[in-house]
Amino acid sequence: MIKSISYWSFSEGMSIEQRMRMAKDYGFEAIELTVEGEGEITPESRPEDMQEFVDMAGEIGLKLPTLATGLGWSFPAIGPDPDICAKGIEIIRTSLGLAAAIGAETFLVVPGTVTAGYSYDEAYDDCVDVFMDLGEAAEEAGVYIGLEYVWNKFLLSPLEFAGIIDEIDEPYVQAYFDVGNVIPNGFPDQWIRILGDRIKAVHFKDFRESIGTGTFDGFVDLLEGDVPWAAVMEALEEIGYDGPVTAEMMPPYPHHPERLIEATSKSMDAILGR
User: Fold this and answer.
1) How far apart are alpha carbons 231 and 171 in whole angstroms?
2) Spatial distance between the Cα atoms of 92 and 29, rounded to a whole number of angstroms
3) pTM (2 decimals)?
4) Where do the H-state alpha helices sit in the chain?
5) Shortest CA distance to 106 belongs to which of 188, 191, 202?
6) Distance separating alpha carbons of residues 219 and 18, to the nearest angstrom
7) pLDDT surpasses 70 at 91
8) What is the pLDDT of residues 116-132, one digit of tens each?
9) Residue 227 burial by CB count (10 A; 0-12/13-18/19+): exposed, middle or buried?
10) CA dist 198 to 27, 29, 104, 169, Å?
């Protein structure tokens, strides 16, 4: 497996180069870059703009196996507002091109959120329709769309998650699985076995249920929460997963933030048996 870390694990204000160099210094093999509303990589970026980061990663010695964005929270691909959804879909299309340009194999997508005004069945049907269409763009780019469950009140079980991917039935629409996100309502090793080879990328986070489910404060440093890491690794090995495992540690420490990167690296080595 490829030991990676998310762009979001570093202090705000650090450049991509600074984050890359710190990741390398603390023993990571890869970094997950992100498409932001403002900054070095945005929806206005062009594929040719990405060569700078490809060269940078090559010089530093890092891989770029995945790309993510948080813009789906503001501009979801599915939802009650067609104008917002149209922008969200366009961001996904653009980002697939950016992901291809850096050589990433998977682009993370949170499809949308079920709300009081946007029902679960509507979200399900829209998700199937939208991602059947986007699957063609993903295949053309050669980049998997990795759908992820992120406390969005949608796709709440591994059976449903696997089912919707199968119903979409597009080879380039698969799963981006976050180990920590499912702790409040499931067991990550069970999700892994049920999703199986639909999983194209993995996030490592930890969560402590005693702090309270449904609160961001429940996310803790790796090995400090309730994720059954031995069972998770056994399940990943059982399904033959050998892709990136990306630590997504948020927020960064307010003081001496490099200590979070160092601690995360050491914990990942323990989890990965290195």
Assistant:
1) 28
2) 26
3) 0.96
4) 16-25, 51-60, 82-102, 120-141, 158-168, 188-195, 229-238, 258-272
5) 202
6) 25
7) yes
8) 999 999 999 999 999 99
9) buried
10) 28, 23, 17, 11
Q: Is the dihedral of CA 82, 84, 86, 92 positive or negative?
A: negative
Beta strands at 206-207 and 144-147: parallel, antiparallel or unpaired: unpaired
List residues bridging with 4 in a β-sheet: 30, 246
pLDDT tens track for 169-220: 999 999 999 999 999 989 999 999 999 999 999 999 999 988 866 677 889 9
Two structure tokens written together for 16: 């991509």
What's the mean pLDDT in 149-160? 95
Identify the CATH number of the domain defined by range 2-272. 3.20.20.150
CB 201 within 8 A of CB 108: yes
Question: For residue 239, what is the DSSP state?
Answer: T
Place of tokens 């690296």: 265
Residues in CB range of 64: below 8 A, 6 or more apart: 30, 31, 32, 33, 53, 54, 57, 102, 103, 104
Report how far apart, in Å, the C-alpha atoms of 144 and of each of 70, 175, 214, 221, 232 are: 17, 9, 29, 28, 23
Whole-number Å distance between alpha carbons of 14 and 90: 28
Predicted confidence band at 264 (pLDDT cuts at 50, 70, 90)? very high
Note whether 7 and 31 are within 8 A (CB).
Answer: yes
Q: In 3-state terms, what secondary structure has residue 254?
A: coil
> Quick one: tokens of 237?
């090995």
SS3 content of the chain, % helix, strand, coil (to 5): 45, 15, 35
* CA-to-CA dists, residue 125 to 167, 207, 272, angstroms: 10, 31, 38
